[in-house]
Amino acid sequence: LYPILLAVKMLFLMQNKSGASSSSSSSRPSNGKQTPIELAKEWKRNLQKEVRNIDRDISNIRRQEDKAMKECRALVKANRASAAKILAKEVAATRKTIERMHTAKAQLNSVSMTLQTSVAMLKMQGCLAK
Fold first, then answer.
1. Rounded distance, CA 114 to CA 110, Å?
2. For 81-110, how does the pLDDT look when each residue is reduced to its tens digit (9 = 90+)?
3. Which residues, in sequence order, are CB contacts of 10 under 8 Å at separation 6+?
4. E strand or H helix at 5
5. What is the pTM of this model?
6. Alpha-carbon span 68 to 75, nearest angstrom
7. How far apart are CA 3 and CA 104, in angstroms?
8. DSSP one-letter code for 51
9. Is the dihedral of CA 119, 123, 126, 128 positive or negative?
10. b/e string for 47-71 if b means 16 or more Cβ within 10 A?
């Protein structure tokens, strides 16, 4: 659950920052040092890092799900239905978590693509201004 919250928090921060940088002009450096294009590259790099973290977390959760499924099957064979039922609920919860993580990953990719489009628009605006 923590990686999902972290990814969503990063998503909102990136959306707020990308909205703020699109209003500033491309010739004036923001933040005292970096141009909006450089900032966008940095944000995109951070977004991709978060996407990789989400992928890593998804694979870890899938491994845990497989272990729980094997244990659940073993419990059913041993006629321990109540314990197997608890593990089955855990497996269902992990699947729902994986689904949410895929949604968060898709949203981060969407923000990354929007950021890339904004950078292309800034570059085109710079070329047309010359």
1. 6
2. 999 999 999 999 999 999 999 999 999 999
3. 46, 47, 50, 108
4. helix 2-23
5. 0.68
6. 10
7. 10
8. H
9. negative
10. beebbebbeebbeebeeebeebeee
pLDDT at 32 over 80: no
- Note the Cα 14 to chain centre separation in Å: 11
Tell me the pLDDT band of 5, cut-offs 50, 70 and 90.
low
Is residue 3 within 8 Å of 53, Cβ to Cβ? yes
Q: What HEC string does 55-122 produce?
A: HHHHHHHHHHHHHHHHHHHHHHHCCCHHHHHHHHHHHHHHHHHHHHHHHHHHHHHHHHHHHHHHHHHH
Check if the beta carbon of residue 108 is closer than 8 Å to that of residue 12.
no
Q: pLDDT at residue 8 above 90?
A: no
The residues facing 30 across adjacent strands are 34
